[in-house]
UniProtKB/TrEMBL annotation:
It comes from Tateyamaria armeniaca. PANTHER family: 5'-NUCLEOTIDASE SURE (PTHR30457), 5'_3'-NUCLEOTIDASE SURE (PTHR30457:SF12). Binds 1 divalent metal cation per subunit. The keyword Nucleotide-binding applies. This is 5'-nucleotidase SurE.
Length: 260
């Protein structure tokens, strides 16, 4: 199997090394893993592409490349510049921190997987939730290392080969617990943390200039039952199938009066 991997935490991020191990285990001795990841951290860039600015790709190993761009840029560079034939699978992550609930909309990790799906390649984003149950472990990615391969292989085995329209991609979030405490895997929809969102916090520099920092909310707030962050905080790996179609299909009938 040929696998392309990327992330949004950067080419030197610990989670990328975790994903490389998982990908190599899946690819097997006859497979190949290509790493094309941002040269610098790109957290929060979502599905951004550098449409108006060219970027450089630097080869740092036989199948390892650093890109001065976003995760979506990395996927495009991997498909059209780095690899001679398309991959069978694209993996993005393992992100340091969860991309459950509203975080999914901001996530560069998911942005890489989304671009892979738009290019017609099965793509999976993986994120490691952080919390009191794992942040002080010697390896806080322990649960991802232990369970990641099996979850990915089940996704591969159960994804339809022929998909009309927008292709599926997957958002996988590993709970904030030690590997031995993972209770299982749940297939669930994206949730919404009540009262949790990003906001700005002002600060003044020594020169007297005012700057704003973007800050997130409490990540230990659960979403509604049987949605992603709720099952994560209960010790389950969440798997959420997604598509790039943003249409609110449930509202098309009730909003017919808008049409003329």
């Amino acid at each position: 199997m040929r696998i392309l991997i990327t992330n949004d935490d950067g080419i030197s991020a610990p989670g990328l090394h975790v994903l490389e191990k998982i990908a190599n285990d899946i690819a097997g001795p006859t497979g190949t893993v290509w790493t094309v990841a941002p040269a610098f951290e790109q957290s929060g860039v979502a599905h951004c592409i550098n449409y108006t600015r060219p970027f450089m790709v630097q080869k740092i190993g036989p199948t390892r490349f650093a890109v001065e761009g976003s995760p979506a840029d990395c996927v495009l560079a991997g498909l059209y510049e780095v690899m001679d034939t398309p991959p069978d699978l694209i993996l993005s992550g393992v992100n340091r921190g969860n991309n459950s609930a509203e975080n999914a909309l901001y996530s560069g990790t998911l942005g890489g997987a989304l671009e892979g799906a738009l290019q017609g390649v099965l793509s999976i984003a993986l994120s490691q939730y952080f919390g009191p149950g794992n942040r002080d472990l010697e390896d806080p990615f322990e649960a991802s290392v232990t369970h990641g391969k099996a979850v990915i292989e089940r996704i591969i085995a159960n994804t339809p080969k022929d998909q009309p329209g927008y292709q599926l991609f997957y958002n996988v979030n590993v709970p904030p617990v030690a590997a031995a405490d993972v209770k299982g895997t749940a297939l669930v929809p994206q949730g919404l943390r009540p009262g949790v969102g990003f906001h700005t916090e002002p600060t003044t520099s020594p020169s007297g200039r005012r700057f704003l920092f973007i800050k997130g909310g409490n990540q230990q707030v659960p979403t509604a039952p049987d949605t992603d962050a709720a099952v994560n905080l209960d010790g389950y790996i969440s798997v959420t199938p997604m598509r790039a179609d943003l249409t609110a299909h449930d509202m098309l009938d009730s909003l017919r009066a808008i049409a003329t």
